[in-house]
Amino acid sequence: MSAFRRCALVASALWFFQNISPALADVVESKLASGIVAAAEYRKGQPEKPAVLILHGFLQTRDFPIIHSLTEGLSGSGYTVLAPTLSLGINKRGRSLSCEAVHTHTMESDVDEVEHWVDWLQSRGHKNIVLIGHSFGGIDLADYVYTHPNPAVQKLILFSLKDLEYALWDASQRIDTTRAKAQLKRKSRALGTYQLSFCRKYTAPAAAYLSYASWTESRLLHLLAGIRTPIEVYLGANDVHFQQDWPSRVGGTGALVTVIPGANHFFDGPSELDLLEKIGRSLKSLRREN
Amino acid sequence: MQPPRTNRSAWSASSYGLGFIVLLVVLFGALGWIAHGKLEAIRSAARISAEREVRTELREAVRSLVEQAQQDAQTLAEWDEARQQFSQTGYYSYWRTYRALNDGPLPSRITALDLYDKNGRNLNSTQTAATMPTSLQLDRLGVRLVRENKRAYLYCFLPITESASGTQIIGYAGIKLDFLRALRESGVQHPHLDIATVSLNTPEGKPLLPAAIMGSLSYDVAPDATHIAMESLLRDFFYQIAFLLAGCSILLYLALHFLLAKPLLSLSGHIDALRRGQGKHQPDGFSGSLHIAELENIRASLNDYQHQLDDMRASLEKSNDQLWIQAHRDPMTGVHNRRSFEEDWQQTIATVSGRDVEVCFMLFDCDRFKAINDCYGHHVGDEVIRGIATALQGALRTGDRLYRLGGDEFGAILLHTDADEARKAALRCSESIAAYDFGSLGIKEPVEISIGIAYARGADPSRLQALQKEADLAMYHAKGHDQEKIVFYAEHMTMEQSPRPV
User: Fold this and answer.
1) Quick one: average pLDDT of A252-262?
2) What span, in angstroms and rounded, lies between the C-alpha atoms of B194 and B178?
């Protein structure tokens, strides 16, 4: 990124956030249907602006840097922001979960939690909701939107959407998936150690493991294509978690794909402002549409 | 001769050398004892100081370990995965064994852990690790040290709240660690504490609060490397000095023995030999090698003194010989005198008495010697006497002694000689006198001698005693006959029968 472009970006961001006023941060807790208490950071913004739900990536928390930055930036722009931390079966989970931990949570339980928090927002009077998800969190949100169509959800913004086929490309994970399926066929609830995404020793019952590992590229693209809600996808040009044709394949589902130069999977550094600017503009356009 | 006076309380030089060595050993031993005492005092002071330091180190180590245990228990209590076990207990045993104790955030010093519900019951009491209690006494949370199976275990139980910042207790976390092993493997350096010797002295199963732990521990002070090195250095130095002193003492003793004691002993022996010789001649002086100048001077002086003594002894012997000769020789003729005859006669009697030895005694007397003396003077008479002595001495056998018994009378004792041989000897004597040139003395008349011979065998002592008288009678009988000048004694001879009075 050239120095001129960097200066222009910073100036643009400052213009965008010129009306930023500090929003009151509040950690809200809500008891899930499973009995587990989940927590989220809730920042109430201006009522006329849509509420934004920002979901972290796989095994992470709302304190993940890019999530935290988006929460700060968007709430500072007057948006109501809810950044939940998926419980993953842990009461008031506050830290990222290790791969080696016992993972009994599933994709379905994650989606249920998303539904829970969307409902929570709606119960607070937010009628226009935008869902923003990072990495695998984006798949959670897409699955939620697909399986739980909700008119209140105005837009789905996914950044660093994982190329599952690329992630599953590893031969070991394929073998583990086969092994887990065989175990599931035996209706075994025993824990197994599998490879899943970046986890080399993902410990989980076969069903819980497969709830994530069964997400193939075609399933995801099919899902995206079936969603009526507008979808915007932001990918980092330097993200090593997808193949070169991944943006075009995602774009083929009808989603609006934007590749941000210089950004990696975590959008750290200057690309964080790029993402924030793009999401800000997207949210503004949504207001104008409304 | 008086025996040499010896000082019985005096010691030899070797004894003095040995005494000196013993004194040296005693002094060195005393020095070593004093040094050992000083070292002990230093060691004792260092031990007291080290024990104080050890208590401080151990107290700090225990405090640190208790804090670590509390921190470990707190880490467990605040761990999301620990809270997860309260909502999903199905995999608790797996999580505890394979996750919490192996891959979790807890340090390896934790040997066992367990979670308990809010009533103090283990989350999975049926599969609880045997080393952790199955239930808690909720009024006894915190840190406890318990002796189990002769090992000391530190337990820490803390409450688990519903979240890291929450206050609602949902259960309890308990950890257990091997107290002594954790102390040893804490990585903290203990300069004074021998951490391997720390042990717990409490009955089995009796829990100790942190404040009571120190009082139940026994321990040893670690050997101080500096002190050990210093002691080793001093000990080596002491041994080196002792070795050096021993070597020097042996060399000193040998030098004393070979350079002083042995030469002195030789000198003493030489002087003793001189004393035992009682004035007899010592052929050689003291020739031993002496390497000490003073002893060499003594040796030279002794040898000079000995040479002087030898010269004096030789001179005395010579004088004695001359005196003996003067006492036993006739000064005019040079033949043995009457004193010599008396001694020899008594010696002969003593020798041959009781033995079958033939003894002849001859008496010689010059005929008309008084007339010669009166006619030609005493000077010529003396010369005649000397001539007779010379002639007789020449006629007798070698070894036969001739005695001048007085005036013109001579005698001879012939041993192992029978009468015939005696007669032959007498005849030779008579012929020798006859052949002697007395004419050169101006004597015109012939000089003749009368010879009386007595013969006896030694087996009859009474006969020996009578030989002189018998020879005398025979000699007077010979004087009474002008033709028969050699006469053997016969029993019928008396003084009255002799032709002229004796």
Assistant:
1) 95
2) 18
β-strand pairing of A191-196 with A199-205: antiparallel
What's the token pair of residue B391? 């002639």
Amino acid at A140: D
pLDDT at B501: 41
Q: Measure the CA–CA gap between B2 and B376, rounded to whole angstroms.
A: 60
Burial class (CB in 10 A: 0-12, 13-18, 19+), A203: buried
What ipTM was assigned to the predicted interfaces of this complex? 0.76
Q: Is the pLDDT score of A10 beyond 70?
A: no
Cross-chain Cβ contact B91/A191 below 8 Å: yes
Q: Which of B78, B80, B92 to mutate to test the interface with A (most CBs of A within 10 A)?
A: B80
10 Å CB burial of residue B250 (0-12, 13-18, 19+) is exposed
Round to whole Å and give the CA distance between B257 and B255. 5
What is the spatial distance between Cα B392 and Cα B388, in angstroms, rounded to a whole number?
A: 6
Q: How far is A54 from chain B (nearest CA, A)?
A: 22
What is d(CA B354, CA B458) in angstroms, rounded to the nearest whole number?
Answer: 6
Predicted confidence at residue A3, as pLDDT, reads 47
Q: Phi, psi at residue B363, to the nearest 5°?
A: -115, 135
Q: Which of A39, A91, A189 sits opposite B87 (nearest CB)?
A: A91
Give the alpha-carbon dihedral of A83, A88, A92, A95, to 10 degrees: -80
Could you read off the pLDDT of B47-63 as tens digits, one per residue? Answer: 888 888 889 999 999 99
Helix (H, G, I), strand (E, B) or coil at B204: coil
Neighbours of A106 (CB within 10 A): 19
Give per-residue pLDDT as tens, A174-220. 788 889 999 989 988 889 999 888 888 899 999 999 999 888 888 99
CB atoms A101 and B84 under 8 Å: yes
Distance CA B299, CA B303 (A): 6
Cα(B174)–Cα(B144) distance, rounded to whole angstroms?
A: 11
- Taking the C-alpha atoms of residue B470 and residue B449, their distance in angstroms, rounded to an integer, is 18
**Is A94 in CB contact (< 8 Å) with chain B?**
yes
Amino acid sitting at position A112:
D
Is B46 or B400 the better-scoring residue by pLDDT? B400
Which helix H or strand E contains B453, and what residues bound it?
strand B449-457
Is residue A116 pLDDT above 60, yes or no? yes
Q: Which two tokens stand for residue B16?
A: 């003095």
3-state SS string over chain A?
CCHHHHHHHHHHHHHHCCCCCCCCEEEEEEECCCCCEEEEEEECCCCCCCEEEEECCCCCCCCCHHHHHHHHHHHHCCCEEEEEECCCCCCCCCCCCCCCCCCCCCHHHHHHHHHHHHHHHHHCCCCCEEEEEECHHHHHHHHHHHHCCCCCEEEEEEECCCCHHHHCCCHHHHHHHHHHHHHHHCCCCCEEEEEECCEEEEEEEHHHHHHHHCCCHHHHHHHHHHCCCCEEEEEECCCCCCCCCHHHHHHCCCCEEEEECCCCCCCCCCHHHHHHHHHHHHHHHHHHHC
Q: Which residue has the tokens 């043995």?
A: B336
Residue B392: which of B475, B333, B444, B345 has the closest Cα? B333
| CA gap A215, A107 in Å, rounded | 10
| CB-nearest partner of A104 from B80, B88, B103 | B88
- A95 min Cα distance to partner chain B (Å): 7
DSSP-derived pairing of the beta strands A129-134 and A80-85: unpaired
Residues B221, B191: Cα–Cα separation, whole Å: 9
pLDDT of residue A166: 66
Say what the pLDDT of residue B32 is. Answer: 84
